[in-house]
Amino acid sequence: MFYSNRKLKLFSGNANPGLAKEIAQYLGESLGVAKVGRFSDGEVHISIGESVRGCDIFVIQPTCPPVNENLMELLIIVDALRRASARRITVVTPYYGYARQERKAKPREPISAKLVANLITAAGARRAISMDLHSNAIQGFFDIPSDHLLGVPILAEYYKKKGLTDVVVVSPDVGGVTRARDMAERLGAEIAIIEKRRTDPNVAKVMNLIGNVRNKTAIVVDDLIDTAGTITLGAKALVEHGAKEVYVCCTHPVLSGSAVERIKDSHIKEVLVTNTIPLTKEKQIDKIKVLSIAPLLGEAITRVHKDLSVSELFT
Known about the structure:
Elements: E1 8-12, H1 17-27, E2 34-38, E3 44-48, E4 56-60, H2 67-83, E5 88-93, H3 112-123, E6 127-131, E7 146-149, H4 152-162, E8 167-171, H5 177-187, E9 190-200, E10 203-210, E11 217-225, H6 229-240, E12 245-253, H7 259-264, E13 270-274, E14 288-291, H8 294-305
Helix pairs in contact: 1-8, 4-5
């Protein structure tokens, strides 16, 4: 156990300080002393206020909106820690920005998710921890060890305690079937699939529903909700096909544009999310319930620090 006798230290940028504090409290640690600010021209300025020489460092910084600002903070924090002689730096990005640009959908398009992985590695990170990547393939974009945590166990446990009956788990598209099947197995439920066609970015049209939802409680599960166009359209289709209630859950509440208004005016009874992304005050509505992932990330950090298996968290 090469690193187990090295001092563990946690640092955070400005992306999600609330989550970072929760993780620190769970681990019985204090956040490292660091000033993350801006020069007058907008450039990021980092000042590490304590020695990190020889330490095992974990930087908690989701690259959520504003994505570019938070990504630059992450890269510069990592660079500062590396130059201060940290023994090992692990980036903890519960939400991984640019994850939806993981392939070339058209000629002459970038693969930005791979570029971001390269940047994180070049900055000096030696390990990465992420949660519910938009595509599992992104884990392989890193040329350093990468741990991919899953949100479904946390979401499923909530619904178990809620005691819903006649449940059917719904995938909002064909690509999310594996996630829906995982949720369904944990709840002892059947699955259904919404077939959709995306005509433009952030624009989807429901084409067909595969499976039976009549007189059932539908739980739509996805990795993230952005504009909420897909889930509200899907909820409407489920009600039209006879579903008695529609619940929606995801790991990452991006909720951009008119997403909150769409959710308010939709057939959705409740939207369950996690705190990988902090919700601003205007997004904290009665229909949206937030679960904390601090215990899961805290356990993952402990296991990485002690060189134990991370995959055992899900078995």
